[in-house]
What does this fold into?
Amino acid sequence: MTWKRVVVGVDGSPSSARALRFAAEEAREHAAELYVVTSYTIPVPPVAVSAYAAPPWRDESEWQAAAEGTLRSTLAETLGDDPGIKVTGQAVEGSPAKVLIDASERADLVVVGTRGHGGFTGMLLGSVSQHLTAHAACTVAVVR
It folds into this structure.
């Protein structure tokens, strides 16, 4: 089986760094492109805010810039300057599950970490990885 594209979702967490290392190895073994994606959502500003207690609100571009910073630092810290494979990355607006499911349409493998922040302690899969394994258009690997 020849893969052309491996997708991995990162969020700056230790588990996403493990997923990135796994995805890079898979891309290396298959001579595939590694596409690294992080997602961000722009929160809706509060409707009623007192003029005296108005919280600072970020411009939409600040949310994207923060996500791109997470992407760059995760790549640099995890893979270094020369990972030996073609790596592309992008910060995409949307929920992590939707962004990864959309990316799975153009991938042979999607890799995510699991942080176990679901409702039950000890569950193997978090909500993003559960959603992804149920709806992705390609093979999914969940790395612990």
User: Anything to note?
Assistant: Residues 1 and 70 are 32 Å apart (CA to CA). The domain at 5-36+61-143 is CATH 3.40.50.12370 (Rossmann fold).
